[in-house]
Design brief:
Blueprint: E1 4-10, E2 25-26, E3 31-35, H1 42-49, E4 57-62, E5 65-66, H2 72-78, E6 79-82, H3 94-99, H4 114-126, H5 142-156, E7 160-164, H6 172-187, E8 191-195, H7 199-205, E9 208-212, E10 218-222, H8 223-226, H9 229-236, E11 240-245, E12 248-253
Parallel strand pairs: 3-8, 3-9, 6-7, 7-8
Antiparallel strand pairs: 1-2, 1-4, 4-5, 9-10, 11-12
Helix pairs in contact: 4-5
The structure holds adenosine-5'-triphosphate.
Length: 255
């Protein structure tokens, strides 16, 4: 059974024609990348898949059941979202924020227990954040904040990860570390879908790709099949040179 599937899904991008309905099937173990230029609808798609935004038409199914058939808490246990930018105004430390990942597993007034704390500490350590555990979120750099978002979802440990530009603000080392973390989640039986602007991270780390065009057209499939220079040049309206490095394709913009 697919971890996440869409049936004739049309995302609702205001003022845009319907485009091609999406019939996607994300199996456990797969790492999907969503590629497209600014405004193509990547975030809208991710929010629609998470049930945070209604589709124009069609359905999203999580583990064979329509999202509308899931209770919110049950959904929050199975599906995790890494948002693109999040500026939470309420004061909280890094550790308190990571612990939010355990809230779907606790009853309304239940305190986090040792197991919840252990998961949060492990996630903070995995994201190189242990030394910042007591820091207020508002004092963090952009990349540190991004790693806290990832640590919170790692603490949640969902079966399906929806990550909107997970490498946003990250330095090179942490970009590779985060892609490794997402690959590990997939290897452990999770399904991962991530919006990416970096074609080369997508080419190196994704098993499947969905190309979203600004007019609503789309194509998807195994990554090797989707990494055709002509399709990518049309996607970004940008000339590209494809080279091979260590057997993997690398795309360089041509000026
Ligand atoms: N509430 C809204 N009202 C009007 N237009 C909207 C609204 N929300 C989104 N849009 C438009 O829908 C389009 C798709 O937005 P979306 O954020 O999904 O794009 P994206 O592919 O994630 O872009 P980016 O790469 O810049 O993050 C954009 O043109 C955006 O301006």
């Amino acid at each position: 059974m697919a971890a996440l599937a869409t049936h004739r899904l049309l995302i609702d991008v205001p003022g845009r024609a319907d485009g091609r309905p999406l019939d996607l099937r994300l199996a456990p173990g797969e790492r999907w990348g969503v590629l497209g230029p600014n405004g193509a609808g990547k975030t809208t798609l991710l929010h629609t898949l998470a049930g945070l935004r209604p589709p124009r038409s069609g359905e999203v199914h999580l583990e064979g059941r329509a999202l509308s058939g899931w209770r919110r808490r049950a959904l929050a246990r199975r599906l995790g979202v890494v948002f693109q930018e999040r500026h939470d105004d309420f004061p909280a430390t890094v550790r308190e924020t990571a612990l939010i990942g355990r809230h779907p597993f606790l009853s309304p007034w239940q305190q986090e227990g040792p197991e919840d704390h252990a998961r949060a500490e492990a996630a903070l350590s995995r994201l190189d954040l242990s030394h910042l555990a007591e820091r207020e979120l508002a004092t963090l750099s952009g990349g540190e904040r991004q790693r806290v978002s990832l640590a919170t979802v790692l603490t949640q440990a969902p079966a399906v990860w929806l990550a909107d530009e997970p490498t946003n603000h990250l330095d090179l080392h942490h970009q590779v570390a985060v892609m490794g973390l997402l690959a590990e989640q997939a290897e452990g039986g999770g399904a991962v879908m991530m919006c990416l602007h970096d074609l080369n991270l997508a080419a190196r780390w994704c098993s499947h790709l969905l190309l979203l065009y600004p007019d609503g057209e789309a194509c998807w499939g195994p990554a090797e099949a989707m990494l055709a220079p002509a399709a990518l040049e049309r996607l970004y309206d940008q000339a590209l040179t494809r080279v091979e490095v260590d057997g993997a394709p690398v795309f360089v913009p041509r000026c």
